[in-house]
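Subject: Interface between my chains keeps coming out wrong

I've been trying for a while to get a sensible model of this assembly. When I model each chain on its own everything looks fine, but I need the whole thing in one frame so I can look at the contacts. Pasting all components below, labels as-is. Any help appreciated, I'm running out of ideas.
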Amino acid sequence: MGAIVADLGSGTVGMVLDGVSVTPTVTDVPNSTDKLVLYTPPTPLTPISNHIAGLVYAGTTNYWIFTVITNVSVASGTALPSNQADPNARGFHVKVVQSATARPGANGGNNAASAEAQLAGTPANVAIAGPEADGSYILTNIINWSSRRVPGQTGAEIGNFQPSMGGPADDPIPGLPGTGLTGTTGRDNVAAEIFAYLDLPAGYQKFGVNGDDGWKVQIGTPGQTNGTVLFTIDRGAGAQDIPFAFITPAAGLYPVRLVWYQGGGDGNLEFFTYGPNNTKITVNDRNNPNAVKAYYQIITVSSLQFTSVTVSAGSVLVSWTGNGVLQEASNLTGNQTDWSDVQGNPSSPFTVTPGATAQKFYRLRPTQ
Ligand SMILES: [Ca+2]
Ligand SMILES: [Ca+2]
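Reply #2:
Try treating it as a single job with all components included. I did that and got this:
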């Protein structure tokens, strides 16, 4: 909970939560004499619970009430270590599908299940395939889409992020208009899966989507539809901010897929977080140090292992993958000193030269 206090000067400020005094942090608001007063409970408040907060300053207390928005707890073990983020893969893996006819299903096809069905191939896709091997697009910046920027469409900028509000211009939706679609059909009947590993701290994460029509956000890699749903709303409606929250049990890279769909009329999508003073920050904004970083792929650590041992023309050939040093032993007693690096640090494949000993053992030592 928080407040902005003007003209505090050298005065003190405090906060009260549900009748108990708490100690807020007080920081300067940039380019202002105002102060930002914030208090974050040590454990997240229960979803949908009601509270009374108070701001104490200048000899008085001003109270307000609030309700905690829904939040979902993400299971332990979901995240990958942050150091597996590929610094050369900032951005999103995006699959867009578009059809010549409306999605079948409830709410005129404007629901998450129908969008998943469309992503899986029904109704048939006519969107222009992206340059990736699987027909997807890689978007290396932010998600700030507007159907009005699709070639052939017109109209004003939309949402929180647009030049008149000091932000970037809206982007078109990749792959649109689909083959054979002209006029307004070029922006209709669309579904998209926007995937990234999001580098998140532990604790309470407040995100938001401004969209038209509806969307679902869930844990999962591309095409993985059974992960924990962080937020979903089935709607056929215009651009609107809808915040949602979830709790991460540990810091790390969380695989998140945002499934968005658009039926008819306008369509737009903005994906953002709420900063400490509720400032909206687009996910993966490279110009904002407070932005959540998105990565469309991780660094895969090559496993160190033997792949084959073969005998040919009196020689033994040992092969392996990964980065390691081949070690040898003539006898195994359980002692580390049994092992020594093979002379010359050979690379795979290695040809064993028959020697004086009747047996030889080999192993691989990681070079990390
Ligand atoms: Ca926008
Ligand atoms: Ca729409």
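Reply #3:
Confirming on my end. The pocket of calcium ion (ligand 1) is lined by residues 144, 146, 157-159, 161-162, 170, 270 (CB under 6 Å).
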